[in-house]
Amino acid sequence: MREIQQFRGRLLADINQEQSEAGIPEFSENVFTELATEWLSETGLTENPEVCHFERSIGNRIARVNGFAVSDDEATLDLFTTCFNGQGDTASFAPEDFRKAARQALAFFRSVSAEMVASLEPSSAEYGMARRIADLAAGLHRVRIFVLSDGVCSLKAIDEEETDRPKVLYELIDIERMHRLVQSGLPRDEIFVDFREFDGDGLRCLHAPEISEDYDAYLALVPGEILFHLYDRYGPRLLEKNVRSFLSARGKVNRGIRDTLRKEPDRFLAYNNGIVATVDEIEIVHNREAGSRHVVSVRGLQIVNGGQTTASLHRARRDDKVDLSSVYVPAKISLIDPGKIDEVVPKISLYANSQNNIQMADFSANDPYHVELSKLSSNVWCPGEQGRWFYERTRGEYEVEKSRTARTPAQVRKFNERTPRSRKFDKVELAKFILSWEQRPDKVSLGGQKCFSWFMQDLKDTHSKNWLPDEEYFKRTIAKALLYKEAMSVVRKEKFPAYRAQVVTYVVAYLSHRTGRQVDLDMIWQKQKLSEDLVELLRDLAYVVRDTIVESAGDRNVTEWCKKAECWTAVRACGFKLPDQLPGEVRGTQAGGGGKTPSSNLSPADLNAMERCQAVSAQDWIEISRWGNSTGKLKDWQSGIAATLGGYAARDWTKPPSVKQAHRGVEIIRLAEDEGGPLSGE
């Protein structure tokens, strides 16, 4: 029980930190819901969670939820409702408290309709949530209601609702279960499969020779119907975490698999490579007379290869009504030594998935990049040598470090002064900081785990295999963190009613875009804060960005719209007017993008020229270059600049034009407009 109390204490401390950084009395229940749903997303219990508090009387019922999530295939809706105490020692909730919360969440789902959506303010988060659910309602396969709590409750289950479609299931997550999930990192301990439910004898198998002390292996043919029921029951949490993240970020259900299931199900075994799975426990019955072995039950089942096979088979059975009676899937099942799980499972996952081009970067817990960044956070001190930032490479590492180095009250105070929670960040936050600055707000808006997966892929694409971050990289990463955190603080203080997370990433991305990445990150690192002028610029920009996002979404769901590259295109074209006096951090650099040698300050005219050039498409720049060469209207060097800018545009301006290029580009644009060129409209 002491561990539970300590875990809850850390949780409440995190909530207080969030409120402190917001600068306003943020609704504690919402902060708790956000933290809890992020953990559930990491462990695979849900996908794409969004926090949104809704509570009102509808008829004679109270409809209430704290957030929702929609699965990637849009077949599962998760609703989150919170029982939050937030005071003193670990609280206890009566079973009726959980049942009441569950009833109110179900009342919300059943009350969502076109009429209810029309009654809500279109700019509110409640409208976005209700609209999204109403649009998906007809195609939902199941609804799961999660009751989240910072207290303990003796009620551990609520029977599912007897409805035709969608079926309604309940997940009760009190503080004890939450602690188990967070500690294990994956909810595999909760996945117990008794194969006798499907076949009285269990799953027939072959036992591989005992060739290693680290694992024991079995080979089996799994009936397709069993695999369907397992995925239907457990969903993506059945997939090993790294494979799940990879598939959710880049994978689509394999059409070839589905075509085989529909047209030639009896050949599925011949065509498919099967699945690779690991288990924490396995029970085998050996019938020596018959010479057979059967897998009776397993605990901790995780599919580390074959995620697309499993998901495709499930969808074919569920949506296409495919008969799986003749479908069998070959399976290799490995029982891993408990002391070797963290070492062996990621390697099995990596090597088993090598044919799917899953890179080492996708298995990031011990990736050299993160290990090196963690070392840098330990060794690089803020200016003045009085404090440092803490990179939490694995969950709970911050508290472990505090417990290890701070045993007396005085040591705890010193630790908190040197390494406050406000300077702690994890790998998902790291991805948000960097991808926002790298002008990928659409990827950040996908949600924590998908954002992180894209970040890791971007690292692989942009750096050599053996590249590692250095001290300069770390310092500029912290400067990006300060920008992101300040933007979040501004949005919270301004009390934006909806889409805060989306506005924050788009604000940072637009600042990077509008300045051509010419923000002095070294200056921000040195001061460990933003100037008042830059904070004011972020505040003004937040309103313009928010309005642009909402208006450009039109009738579309705003949250979903923010995940589209087209949304970023609309925001880049918002025409934000820069102040006459730019903040001191906005200055030219010889290397660009916060480079090594700051030069003179940029002017609004410089930045306006850069924006004007970036508003021209790659095709138009190439056409201008060709037109200039063929007509002689442009000098050779001008045609060359147009071609260069066309190349920048083709790469979506990942490299912005220099100030000199921008001013010359504007001159070229004017010539093309005035002399009958591609931009003249003739």
Describe the structure concisely for a colleague:
The chain has 682 residues and is α/β, with parallel strands linked by helices.
Map the helices and strands.
Layout: H1 2-22, H2 28-43, E1 50-58, E2 61-70, E3 76-83, E4 92-93, H3 95-111, H4 114-118, H5 125-136, E5 142-149, E6 152-153, E7 167-173, H6 175-184, E8 192-194, E9 203-207, E10 215-223, H7 224-234, H8 241-250, H9 255-263, H10 268-271, E11 275-279, E12 281-287, E13 292-299, E14 302-305, H11 307-319, E15 328-336, H12 341-352, H13 368-379, E16 390-392, H14 397-405, H15 409-418, E17 424-426, H16 427-437, H17 441-444, H18 448-462, H19 471-493, H20 500-514, H21 521-527, H22 532-553, H23 558-561, H24 565-572, E18 587-589, E19 598-601, H25 604-614, H26 618-631, H27 636-650, H28 659-674
Parallel strand pairs: 3-5, 4-6, 5-7, 11-15, 16-17
Antiparallel strand pairs: 1-2, 2-3, 8-13, 9-10, 9-13, 10-15, 11-14, 12-13, 18-19
Helix pairs in contact: 1-2, 7-11, 8-18, 9-11, 16-18, 16-19, 16-20, 19-20, 19-21, 19-22, 20-22, 25-28, 26-27, 27-28
Fold and architecture overview:
InterPro entries: AIPR_C, AIPR_N. Residues 32-180 form the Abortive infection phage resistance protein N-terminal domain. Residues 239-552 form the Abortive phage infection protein C-terminal domain. This is AIPR family protein. With 682 residues, the protein is an alpha/beta fold. It has four domains: 2-184, no CATH class; 189-356, no CATH class; 368-600, no CATH class; 607-674, no CATH class. The chain has 28 helices and 19 strands. The strands form five sheets. Strands 8, 9, 10, 11, 12, 13, 14 and 15 form an eight-stranded mixed beta sheet that branches. Helix 25 (604-614) crosses helix 28. The protein is globular and about 90 Å long. It starts with a helix and ends in an 8-residue tail after the last helix.
